[in-house]
Specification:
By secondary structure, the protein is α+β, with helices and mostly antiparallel strands. Helix content is 49%, strand content 19%.
């Protein structure tokens, strides 16, 4: 007999992950009511969905501009999606704002591991640590260090049902 999952537990997981009620209920049933395991299941499913949608063209999107307090650091960021409908979605716009803040705070040099030149990697002793510090998608999210930007992106793709790509960014700092 399946364990009965409470509405409050589903609601709590939904607020944590932004997944649909049906997905939250299914993940909680699979995790036997353990909310942390259910969140991991949903994160994994989000990354699987993102991988399936990776080949679809993303020609819409938005440019996010962020200037940090004191006007000493600023970021211009392009995030692309498949439709202008999603580009205007509040979850999508919040994602672009969060990523702009992430870039401001953590100063990544590259978007993903594949962007790192081989000559730079040859000089690094600990490649995984280098990726975590210098690749945006591998960095811990500043608002929730338990997930990476890649996890955050995967959950957004799963929720909105479109391919979403962080295309490029430029970080400006006075004096650099």
């Amino acid at each position: 007999m399946k364990k009965q999952i409470s509405v409050d537990l589903i609601k709590e997981l939904r607020e944590m992950t932004c997944a649909s009620v049906a997905h939250c209920k299914k993940a909680l049933e699979e995790a036997a009511g353990d909310i942390k395991k259910a969140a991991q299941i949903l994160r994994k499913q989000g990354l699987e969905i993102a991988a399936k949608r990776q080949d679809r063209l993303a020609r819409e999107g938005r440019i996010e501009a962020y200037v940090h307090m004191g006007n000493k650091i600023g970021v211009l960021l392009e995030v692309d999606c498949e439709s202008d409908f999603v580009a205007r979605n509040s979850d999508f716009t919040q994602f672009t704002k969060d990523v702009s803040m992430q870039i401001t705070a953590c100063s990544p040099l590259y978007i993903k591991k594949e962007d790192v030149p081989q000559d730079v990697l040859r000089e690094e002793k600990n490649k995984e640590e280098f990726y975590k510090n210098n690749c945006l998608l591998e960095q811990a999210f500043v608002k929730d260090p338990s997930i990476t930007i890649k996890d955050y992106l995967g959950s957004l793709i799963a929720k909105l049902g479109e391919n979403i790509v962080i295309r490029r960014f430029t970080r400006y700092k006075v004096g650099e």
